[in-house]
Here is the input.
Amino acid sequence: MTTEVIGQPLPMVDGRPKVTGRLTYTPDITLPGMVHARLVISPYAHAWIRSLSVEEARRVPGVIAILTAQDMPDVPPRNRHLLLLARDRVIFAGQPVALVLAESEAAAEDAAELVAVEYEPLPAAVTIEEALAPDAPVVWPDGLPGASEEAAAHGADVEGETETTTHPNIAQTVHFHRGDVRRGLEEADIIVEYTFTTPWVHQNYLEPHATVVQPNPETGGATVWTSTQAPFYIREEIAAILGVPESDVQVHVMPVGGGFGGKFILYEPLIALAARQVGRPVRLVLTRMEEMLAGNPAPAMRCHARLGAKEDGTLLALEADLVFDGGCYPSSPLGIAALLMGSYYNIPHVDIRGREVLTFKPSSGAYRAPGAPQATFVIESLVDEVARRLQLDPLTIRLRHAARPGDPMVNGKPWGNMGLVDVLRALENHPAWRAREEARRQGHGVGIAIGGWPGGTEPAAAACRLERDGTLHIHVGAVDLTGTRTAFVQMAAAIFGLPPEKVRVVVGDTDTAPYAGAAGGSKTLYTLGPALIAAVEEARRQVLAIAAELLEAAEEDLEIQDGYVQVRGAPDHRLSLAEIASQTMQFGGRFPPIMAFGRHADRTQSPGFSAQLAEVSVDPETGQVHLHRLVVVQDVGRAINPLAVEGQMQGGAMQGIGWALTEAMIYNGDGQLITATWADYTVPQVEHLPDRMETVIVEVPTDHGPLGARGVGEPPVVPTAAAIANALADALGVRFTELPITPERIVHALRERARTA
Amino acid sequence: MPRWETYHLATTVEDALNFLAVYQGEATVIAGGTDLMIDLETGEVPLPRGVVDITRVKELQVLRREGKYVVVGAGVTHSRIVTSSLLQVEAPCLVEACGVIGGPQVRNMGTLGGNVAHALPAADGTVALVALEAEAQVARRTAEGQVVRTWHPITSLFLGPGRSAVDSTRELIVAFRFPARRPREGSAFDRIMRPQGVALPILGVAARVQLTPDGQHFQRACLCIGPAGPVPFRARQAEAVLVGQPVGEETLAQAVTAALEEARLRTSRHRATREYRQEMLRVLLRRVIPKAVERARTWKGVDTP
Here is the structure.
């Protein structure tokens, strides 16, 4: 293996077409005879549909059909994407009640405005508190239609105990415990106790949900182009709703303009049914407001928690009552959040009870490390507060208690190979940490936090073939969200012995590509990488076998370098890969074509951890926060492409800044989203960037990932909000328990402090 | 289904008003469209039958000193105001206010006339114009078909939030004028936003002050606060406190107290509470007035008593 290309900051293979606007995304797909779809959505969070008239809308020139629940199969809506079109009741503002199909986007939009729906508004429980009231309106009065599958897709099978629910709006519970939390709290010298809240937050990918479905009248199946992270899952669900075998549904693996967990499945089944109904291809592209109203955002959390410690800083007991607001379906990452909250540190007594509460809002989806930023905000604020009150070094107290590989998680299972301690040590040596006293003298606050993600697993396969021109083609079925294709090129080039420009990754569709799971849970490179390595190694063996015959040399004396197979020590005695390949693809040729496969299934997770430092200052008059520095340390196992890895670290931390300071989906008392545009909802912008964002890559290799690599995408968003909150606590002496920490909250807290001081 | 029957590119004020007259109240004026298009989209403004685009009317693009006035055409974009060296000297508060409107795209399209015509109590450009004691020239067509242009104090244009005295289906704002910088005079604007920089501000304040020849007392003062009521708010009591008093902490404190008493600050849910606005009014006055004083002191003209 020539390893020079591993660890090189190669530019993204699809970077140029992306920045020049030449890449074809789903909304760019236009098919002959294609029809445009527009949703008619409910303006009420909870209402009976009394009547629905489409007559006026139908008269708009160009309208082909207006579909309602009557045109949909009567399937039990066990999941959000099976709500299709509302039948008699709507349960969130933004829920589709009709679908207009027209010859042009404009006609569809005009007609959608003319669909007359008569509603009888009903009371809606919007907040956790309202939903838990004894007489609360119930989201599913006849029982829950079924659990969501997306949580499992993110590797969130965490095995906590479940408890009997007592309120019809409680969708799931979880309970983790070890030791005796009551005794632990009794023995504690100090107890810090707060109620933390985090709001609904949207993924805000640039490309909205977009789907094109072409029906196949022969089979009853369909061909699908859709902006999803999970093409094979889409195939499964569309086949099910159409009632055809999965093989009759073909899903193209499309470039995705951002997903962050929010793009698994949403309106694909609805559009597949619509396309079959009208017998023409149908395209739906959501507007930004529809994204905000009816996407898959991250759920709100409320957590009351206590952490008890000895005077010397020994952490004794953690008790937490964790509640997620899942919206209208069980969908929140309750288990994973509870597991992470209780497992970062070795605390002898832990008791975490979690509940998911349903409200009249859209259901939640995964958002980059689902549940982890929320859980980490809780535990990392508590640990920091213990250190602050005991005047202990916040890094030392974390190092003392941080879980090592093999230490038990709160579910009893051991942590796998991981670098939590290593990222803390790297932060300890970072100039920003060492210069913290100097920063404090300037009136700045310095805060740190850790956080991680357990990592996902899923079986995967890859194929590899050598083309006549000597190019190596790698076939995969995974969506490239984060630069994985570029990493695949580097791995294949290194293992085969080719320059990277002679490797091409071909992303197929569900008919032609080897299986790969959803690009999510930080597992694409981790699970597909080993399959790819196996395929490339096998292809290399096939090449060497042919070359040995042609060069009349032993296989073990051959090497592949820069696209040539040569006899070791006799570089003149060589054949180009193109020459070898051409002998396998010609009339009367002697050798079989080079074609290899790799398969992989390994259920061992390799957790990824990040430690971060934030340095802030605050304008005490206005409460405006200035971020001077953000240091992002992360254990990535092995950075196959450090450019892509650093991009992930920076992007994750930037989203963490949004969690910390700016982002919130705010619903009013009627369940109306009042931050439904980007003018009202604050996606972090350039002005929110820290003066310096520094990334530090730590490499603690794992035996289970390719070349030692572990998942990179999720960890960097996890600790950022906590690190910023801790920096603010350091600067102001105030503990912030509500995200986002807005200027008004800061001014209010400072005034409270002045009043009580 | 087209949005409107006619989209007319007017070349003169007369042309634009004739178009409006033909449509008898069923047509409207569009300049940058940065507010209007959103209102049409959300249904807040009913769809007009005709639209007259005034961005090609030369008369609306004036930006110059005319005698004792500075004249800014209603069609001048925020971007032009921000880069104007004339306004940098004459009215820094207007430059500062227009510089924080929207993002660069909105500033390139949006016009000062549109900012005023929308009649919001906290529109940045408007708040600055009120502090400059600007007047607006409104053109309308008489029953005989003649076009008349009349000057009005800018504060007379606002009837309530989003309600302008200028009927954009019959009348047109042509230009604004305000007194050119007087000796020892300076102005400033500042505002508090929610964490992002695009939507409505939490509070904006503009000040224009003139100092006495000794430079130690306030001779004139004009303060505008928004939102502090249904229309842009002139803080006349605070102004009265300043005039004749020495420049300094004590006067400033009294002016802040007066402003807090007279301003009708409200809680707007999810944007800001009344208490936070009061806090921020204090902060903004303490930033804006001293900055205006500082600029007043940079005046380099020859003092003629």
Notes: Chain B touches chain A through 17 residues (CB under 8 Å).
